[in-house]
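Researcher: Next entry in the queue.
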Amino acid sequence: MSTIKDVAEAAGVSIATVSRALHGLPRVSEATRQRVLTIAADLQYVASPSAAGLASGQTMAVGVVAPFINRWFFAAVVHSAEELLRAAGYDLLLYSLGTDADERRRAFSGNVLRKRVDAVLVLGLQPTPEEVAALSSAGGPVAIVGVAVPGWASVRIDDEAAARTAVRHLVDLGHRRIGYIGGEPHDPLHSAAPADRLRGYREELRAAGIAPDQQLEAVGGFTVRGGMDAMDALLALADPPTAVFAASDEMAMAAIHVARRTGMQVPGDISVIGIDNQEMSELFDLTTVAQPVDAQGVLAAELLLGALSEPNRPRPSVTVPTSLIVRGSTAPL
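Model: Structure for this entry, 333 residues:
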């Protein structure tokens, strides 16, 4: 296999000149660039990303830090962001943290990403001030999806407002005993969405003159299995809800499955609404508050590319709109 040294010797130039010619960098004449490209093709030499970094100081990679990559929301954001970034010549390095505190510390310290990426995209995590400072000092712009962070470009929905829209829909249908399926009260991921959606649920109940009842609040963990267990718990109450708001479509679809498994009619016996407009929600005829997930990934990628091309430009905070989609899982009491 040919090396960059072989190309340099055949072209009669230095290794640094070969690297600059192959990666379109300045201080190389057009004649020299064409000679290097021709020789590299003849020798079937392919430049490595690390070699490009030595000459340009760029890695042509973007780091993505997310709690999970295998869940629908995060996968959809990564996919849409990757399409735009790949077209601009960037690869993605994925860091899936799960609930491991040590992995989170490593990722947000900046050390694991330093000199390996040109920019960072953070998904669905609420960083502490110390984490913001550490990751910002690692070099390169940072964008975040799901929360606003001063100094970082951000893209998000108003989670509290989206939750209020869902609950208002149920209240307008005449429901007064409305259950809630959401995340952990003290989210181990330090994510903003679970707390904001719970707050929106409670505030909209109060606005309708309904006192929130913690017996009607169940933890589903934003998973299908968790949503099923939470719905089982709600239906086991002595006075179960007539409607359920789930803080994600996965949990809402799980709730519908459990209700039907127990012989209940949806929406005849119980109404169910979610948030997301996940691709399977139409199959379940699920009423939901839709958020533009793909658009959030594209916007975040655009903000990073803009910051890379103009490092001194302001870092905007973008809140994208949500919308109520009424289907067949909700009906008047």
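Model: The first helix runs from residue 4 to 11.
Researcher: Noted, moving on.
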